[in-house]
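Hey,

Quick one before I head out. I ran the complex with oxidized coenzyme A overnight. Inputs first:
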Amino acid sequence: MGMLKFILPDIGNYKDIPVIEILVNEGDTVDKDQSILTLESDKATMEIPAPFAGVVRNIQVKLEQKINQGDWICDIETTAEAAASAPAAVAEAPAAPASSVNEAPKPAPAPLAAPQQAAPTPTDKPVNAPSLGAKYHASPSVRAYARQLGVELQHVVGTGANGRIQTTDVEGYIKAIMQGDKPAPKAAAESASTGSGIPPVPVIDFTPFGATEQVELSRIKKLSGKHLAACWLNIPHVTQFDEADITELEDFRASLKTRAEKAGVKMTPLPFVMKAVVQALKEFPHFNASLSPDSGSLVLKKYFNLGVAVDTPNGLVVPVVRNVDQKGLFELARELGELSQRARDGKLSPTDMSGGCFSISSLGGIGGTQFTPIVNAPEVAILGLSKAKMTPVWNGASFEPRLILPFSVSYDHRVIDGAQGVRFTTRLSQLLRDLREMLI
Ligand code: CAO
């Protein structure tokens, strides 16, 4: 037997990532690769597996604690065979100094929040055995699925290995409720009756209707779906539609074509729109703000970082272009090109996607006449761009062909009222129609 220190290995570009679940108790016997912790940042959820089999000792982390690569998670008391394979496993964690691998355990630090329990053996472990901070075992995808359906996992019996809850268990649980075989859990019923609960959508067996195929959503879709649902449910949205005559903007853009090519950038209408948005944000500071956590005040931002939604093969991501007010059209075009390329290559870091004040979703390169974008909380407004179209416009004497850009602004009605909303879109339209307005 030997006592090995389990150090958090390289988890990618994540820092200060909170522990959302501790899936084991001190004294638990774990297999190699059995999940020990679940970590969850705003971008990813990951389970951290045991690098070798053994008995868990000296847990060093607590729920909600933010941890980093190299942090001591726990000790694992191993058998001789596991210990023999351990150094390689631990060596995979770059921050774990080799000397820490087989050193004698340090005295146990201050007692943990939860009392130690007698070590259960794998055979006497009950189904859904309670553990420190988690009463059930389920993968992040099953947890996300359950959250999406409003199912609290402590009510679900897991049928997988060691009582792990599977997708089918969650579905079976809902089915039983729908068929009246199982009462709805008290907490859910209570929250539904107070109006705060979201009733789950029905789970339907589609097989009687025809052939189906179940395709797993990409990781980005799962994460952005969770965020979008939270934004949609938490923010009372209003969407204001408007349009801008961008005929002159387009002429200016065409006049820059050769210079843009020489500079090696693609000059689309988007950098012009970004500059106009910044000007509008300066004039309407409540659009460049976030609600305080108690919703009692506004945090007004003095910087102008714009999130730009990028369509990638794996789903939607929103990298942020910083300090747009301090950048020219060519610099913005270059940055947009680089960020969207990295987004499509799946190479954006969490930093690239943080710090935004206001977002733009541009579908203009694809089509559409109007749409209702979802506010990207904690921001309070978002601009949606549709496809500009040459349109006959009456000038008082005749119809003139003008290039008209339809756009929409969705906003948080707790922060922005309707009159402010339409003043903002009217001003944005004016700025786009005549870029000289930005100089005034
Ligand atoms: N009207 C008409 N044409 C437009 C336009 C508009 N509003 N916006 C862009 N275009 C044109 C561009 O000029 C370009 O034409 P050329 O190739 O002839 O110059 C073409 O459409 C393609 O532009 P683009 O999409 O490559 O570049 P962009 O700067 O407009 O947008 C980016 C960059 C990254 C935002 C975009 O590629 C993208 O991913 N858009 C989708 C965003 C999305 O999915 N939003 C939904 C979020 S909610 O689900």
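Confidence is low (pLDDT under 50) at residues 87-134, 186-195.

Talk tomorrow,
K.
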